[in-house]
Design a protein that fits this description.
single chain; mainly beta; 21 strands
């Protein structure tokens, strides 16, 4: 039962955390660490949001974006294994088309490489831990001007514990990711038409700071009937107090500010249809309204539903899924209320060897 039921949830892995209301994208998933034997996995997802304001005829183009991730797991012996994971944990692609914030935008990119060792202690318990390297860059345009900045690669830590019972496909894993402080360098400029009170055309060097949140991931699954799996996750990211601040000859600017933490929940059920096919249904909720009055996250709390399927043949697994996300209303920067939805689609390919 173990090998097949552990793969049912993979049908939705590629799109499970790609349409968040905030800036979380990958959810820092480490699932590849729990695959059997040596394993390689590639995942791709595309997200198409539509966020607008009916109240003032305002359009916010939360642009389509794609995410990629790679994972490699090496089983050294019956107790010790290692995983190397590359993903894009945070991001934003927001363009304010009309209304009071017209012309403003936020485009943020990140990459992360995580290395994790896992030691199985016996009796179902294991511990895992390691380090990750993270890099961020981006552009933000507001009434204060245009910030174009990036940071050097910074390091953080990851640690966790898990419990498994293969006879009922049970696994519970708790993982902690440390927060990371980034020192930024770049330019602060004033494009024409941004603010008549500022010197248009001027570009100056800028330095700043921003932090990525520490986070806790709780992942779980268990067999509930023959060939049927219940699975889910809870992620709590500590965004409260995080801000993007810079200093330049044009002055000190607070570009982004988060006022509350963000928690997301996923719950799904998977069913093995035959030796090759399994399907899954998943529901999700994120309290995205608590991301605060920030330019980066115009969407409020989200509710989602996803469908997926996995095809398994010998040592190859191919999974695909689609997800619909509905965002509740949220007022940004004290201006107008926004709401909208998003369609996500993704695929993952895994090879055991």
């Amino acid at each position: 039962m173990k090998r097949q039921t552990l793969t049912i949830a993979a049908a939705l892995t590629a799109v499970a955390t790609s349409a968040q209301a905030g800036i979380d994208r990958s959810g820092q998933d480490i699932g590849v660490l729990f695959e059997e034997g040596n394993y390689f996995k590639f995942s791709f997802a595309n997200v198409s949001p539509d966020i607008t304001s009916e109240a003032a005829g305002v359009t916010t183009s939360a642009s389509d974006f794609s995410t990629f991730s790679f994972g490699y797991k090496q089983q050294f012996n019956d107790k010790l294994s290692f995983a190397l994971i590359w993903d894009q944990p945070y991001g934003a692609d927001i363009d304010y088309i009309d209304g009071p914030a017209a012309g403003g935008f936020a485009h943020i990119d990140s990459t992360q490489i995580t290395g994790i060792l896992r030691y199985e202690m016996g009796n179902g318990f294991s511990v895992h831990g390691g380090a990750f390297a993270q890099k961020i860059s981006g552009q933000v345009l507001t009434g204060s001007g245009l910030l174009d900045a990036s940071g050097d690669t910074e390091w953080g830590g990851v640690a966790g514990v898990a419990y498994e019972r293969p006879d009922i496909a049970l696994r519970v894993a708790l993982t902690y990711f440390s927060g990371i402080d980034h020192e930024l360098t770049g330019t602060h400029s004033i494009p024409p038409g941004v603010n008549p009170l500022l010197p248009a055309g001027l570009t100056t060097p800028a330095t700043g700071t921003v932090s990525m949140p520490e986070a806790f991931n709780l992942d779980f699954q268990t067999g509930i009937a023959q060939d049927t799996l219940l699975f889910g996750s809870i992620r709590h990211a500590k965004y409260e107090g995080i801000s993007l601040d810079t200093v330049s000859p044009l002055g000190a600017v607070n570009w982004v500010n988060f006022v509350d933490d963000v928690t997301s929940y996923e719950l799904g059920i998977g069913r093995k249809l035959n030796d090759n096919w399994s399907v899954a249904l998943m529901l999700g909720y994120e309290d995205g309204a608590d991301t605060g009055d920030t330019f980066l996250a115009p969407a409020g709390a989200s509710r989602s539903i996803g469908l997926g399927a996995t095809y398994t043949h010998e040592n190859i697994k191919i999974s695909g899924g689609v997800r619909y996300t509905k965002f509740s209303e949220k007022t940004v920067l004290g201006l107008v209320p926004f709401e909208g939805d998003a369609i996500s689609a993704g695929v993952s390919i895994g090879i055991g060897f």
